[in-house]
Amino acid sequence: MEIKTLKNYKELxxxxxxxxxxxxxxxxxxxxxxxxxxxLGLYKELVNRQLDWSTTTTYNLxxxxxxxxxxxxxxxxxxxxxxxxxxxxxxxxxxxxxxxVWPDLxxxxxxxxxLLGIGGNGHIAFNExxxxxESETRMVDLTEETIKDNSRFFPSINDVPTQAVTxxxxxxxxxxxxxxxxxxxxxxxxxxxxxxxxxxENIPASVLQTHTNMETFYCD
Length: 220
What we know:
It is a single chain. This protein is of the alpha/beta class. It has one domain (3-219): Rossmann fold (3-Layer(aba) Sandwich), CATH 3.40.50. Helices cover 25% and strands 18% of the residues. The chain has six helices and ten strands; from the N terminus they run βαβαββαβββαβαβαβ. The protein has a seven-stranded parallel β-sheet, sandwiched between helices. A three-stranded antiparallel β-sheet has the order 4-8-7, with no helix packed on it. The longest helix has 15 residues, at 9-23.
């Protein structure tokens, strides 16, 4: 498993955008998308390329539960940074909180591309340390570390939701191709542990080592 180090954040965003652009040429492409600060440059690049998303279906990795700060919901994030700027069909946009209509991604959906970031404790989506590699989409309790990390987006740490609905590791791993993005020196140590260390549920991202079509991109 190779960590491909890129020159800067712009190159990281452009490199992953190239992969997304190719995926959009497939018949009725299906993508799993992340939120957070790392993919912001990617989404800006994709909007600027004015690509055709009309036949695409997207599934977002996670969403907060009982969030009272609506402009910090992941639905709001995706609408502002991507969806309202492209020609997506609203009926083809799925969020993890929409459990009543959420497709079962573990059985036959065949997602073409899954984009991921990595948390400081090795979580992907909101699959915190200790999550089963067989986990499905579910409601989870967020760890104190994740709540602290995400507090920078909220008025105070007390406003950060303590629960979320997250796509499980099993449906994530069922994707045909996975891209893991990491930006910043503070992510380098956990990224190396996840990609080069033991495969353990204590570092959920380490399961990605077992995927047969996976790439990791990093920049300082």
